[in-house]
């Protein structure tokens, strides 16, 4: 599949508006282009935030000011920020996997059942790999396994 027409087709799709493509066949080229762009935008925002955190942590000027309470507060804030960035790093991996599924032609279909995940679910969670029903079954199995421990 050629990526250029897909990118051009997204020009007529409003950001965050899956309704404009909802009447098309499921995972049509325009829908795939829409979700590709949504994933790329999300990935870029996460990477920009990560770079801002790195830049902030490299700025040594804030280490010279404040007493022990200020330093402890700063360190706690930095630790929280680093945990958040680690979650973002894992999210970027999932975004990359979703982009790979688009390229492979598997995007939008449940990895357990092969059924469509659905536009509404993908709009809410574009990295979803399971339909709502399959996700509920997985969570039920996990809860039961945790109870049996």
Would you give an account of this structure?
Mean pLDDT is 84; it is low at 1-12. With 149 residues, the chain is mainly α. The protein has helices at residues 3-9, 29-58, 68-104, 119-124, 132-147. It is built from five helices and no strands. Helix 1 (3-9) packs across helix 2. Helix content is 64%, strand content 0%. The longest helix has 37 residues, at 68-104.
Quick summary of this structure?
With 149 residues, the protein is an all-alpha fold. 64% of the residues lie in helices and 0% in strands.
Q: What is the topological layout?
A:
Layout: H1 3-9, H2 29-58, H3 68-104, H4 119-124, H5 132-147
Helix pairs in contact: 1-2, 2-3
Brief descriptors of the model:
single chain, 149 residues, mainly alpha, 64% helix, flat, disordered N terminus
Principal-axes geometry comes out as flat
In round numbers, the mean pLDDT is 84
Weakly predicted, low-confidence segments:
1-12
**Assembly level:** single chain
Class from helix and strand fractions: mainly alpha
Straight-line N-to-C gap: 48 Å
List the helices and strands in order: HHHHH
Major sheet, described briefly?
A: none
Strand content: under 5%
- CA gyration radius, whole angstroms: 20 Å
Give the fraction of residues assigned to helices: 55-70%
Quantity of strands, as a count: 0
Our count of helices gives 5
